[in-house]
Amino acid sequence: MTKITQKDINDAVWKACDTFRGSIDPSIYKDYVLTMLFIKYLSDVHDDKFETYLEKYNGYQDRAKRAMQHERFIVPDHSHFKYLFDHRNEVNIGELIDVALEDLEEANRSKLYSEDGAGIFQNINFNSSVLGDTKDKNTRLKNLLLDFNKDSLNLRPSHLEGNDIIGGAYMFLIENFASDAGKKAGEFFTPKEVSTLIAKLTKSAPGSRICDPTCGSASLLIKAGEEVGSDNFSLYGQEANGSTWALAVMNMFLHGFDNATIRWGDTIRNPKLKESDSALMKFDTVVANPPFSLDKWGKVDDKEENKAADSFDPETDKYHRFWRGVPPKSKGDWAFISHMIETTYEGKGKVGVVVPHGVLFRGSSEGKIRQKTIEENILEAVIGLPANLFFGTGIPAAILIFNKGKIANTNVLFIDASKKFEPAKNQNKLRESDINDIVTTYRKFNEGKLKAGIVEDKFSYVATFEEIQENEFNLNIPRYVDTFEEEAEVDIKAVQVEIEKLEIELKQVQSEINKYLIELNIQ
């Protein structure tokens, strides 16, 4: 039997999107395609396992069915993909799919529900008018079921070339949806090259607890886990958007991380990853690509809302995350950074966070927080990235690395990787060589092999605490990494010769033009 490859599945699922293209925005139809992929995956894994039990129990269906009750997922008959496919011509097919999802959630309540009782499919409606009127909607859903019924989308583990193919297909879809969705994409996806870079910079040891407090669809969190190099780690995440939280939960299961903990809620106002009512969970590694300069992240002007029992005031935050200072209401960058630092273990915790460049130099309350953080000696590296790497924004960003185990020295590594990219039509990309250059320089610094001073011309610099202090704790990279390019000297004599040559050629051309004008009786 020929095994199905990653490319086979990627091509098939992307082709399935043709059902919606041109009529529905990618930011909307992504949920329908990804949900259908999840149903197909659970159904095919169920069938593969059921046949294994049938063989084990000599064809006794009752024994095989009992054994299936202890598997990863329970798939009710009417929630199975085959049932939906067999009923694809029904006039209420949208309603049938919604019922299938609801009962699939209920049968796997401990896995597919949030701690607040919300199911992962609650925000998707296959019977919605967003899919068109009844006739158009039914046609689209029928075509979607037909696309997922193809041999190239047989997702049984015994038919696949590798165990990670399903997760790979899911990530492939999310990345392509992000590319198509434009500005809305930054809410749910961090480009895989950036995720890989952060995962390598914060590489976790076996046994680590790893968290992403703004996890989106969990692509960065998964990369951080895979970078460990073993199965001995645990993943935790929180996501504010309900639809994106659902994507993250499905993503974890499709990658085989069944024990991952993904919570739904606002990390700043209502953190869900807690040891107790007044104590947040601690982690070995915290990574994130938070929303850039989020407005109204904390206390709001609405007096009535502030009086509410569940109102949030960063000044009196019961988790004491903002003891260095409260960020401005209109820019939440340091709120997320403060949360991440406070949720890492003392003496060893590591943070990797994507930030806009303003975080490096803005003054007022942000400047005071930045100064206190630097004085704590936990800032390890400031890495400037190329422009146009992220979906939804062309502005360049930076990565900050904090290390609570940084005790060897008070120096900070600055890297200007703004020229390290492969240009592309819609979005630039970090190449593998670019990632390796950044990571190699960082690891040398981290291992104490790089001392204060120039490390690599126009690429990196190790700054002392005193230098940063002299710069008033401004972390703007050009203050430390000299990227000035001297202009080549101009050969005046050669330029003069070239000008004289061009003037002669110009006179010859003008003479030719005058000759043609006379012949045409124009002059």
CATH topology name of the largest domain: Rossmann fold
- Spans of at least 5 consecutive residues with low confidence: none
CATH H-level superfamily of the largest domain? Vaccinia Virus protein VP39
H/E series: HHHHHHHHHEHEHEEEEHHEHHEEEHEEHH
Write down the CATH class of the largest domain.
Alpha Beta
Q: What average pLDDT do the residues reach?
A: 89
Helix content: 40-55%
Distance between the termini: 82 Å
The number of helical segments is: 18
The number of E-state strands comes to: 12
Shape: globular
Whole-number radius of gyration?
Answer: 28 Å
Supply the number of structural domains.
Answer: 3
Biggest sheet, spatial arrangement of strands: 3-2-1-6-7-9-8-10-12-11
Class computed from helices, strands and strand pairing:
alpha/beta
Main β-sheet: number of strands, strand sense, barrel status?
10 strands, mixed
Q: Strand fraction band? A: 5-15%
CATH architecture of the largest domain: 3-Layer(aba) Sandwich
What does it look like?
The chain is an alpha/beta fold and 523 residues long. The protein folds into 3 domains: 158 residues, Ferritin (Up-down Bundle); 296 residues, Vaccinia Virus protein VP39 (Rossmann fold, 3-Layer(aba) Sandwich); 34 residues. It is built from 18 helices and 12 strands. A 10-stranded mixed beta sheet has the order 3-2-1-6-7-9-8-10-12-11, sandwiched between helices. A two-stranded antiparallel sheet has the order 4-5. The chain is globular, with a radius of gyration of 28 Å. The model has no long low-confidence stretch (mean pLDDT 89).
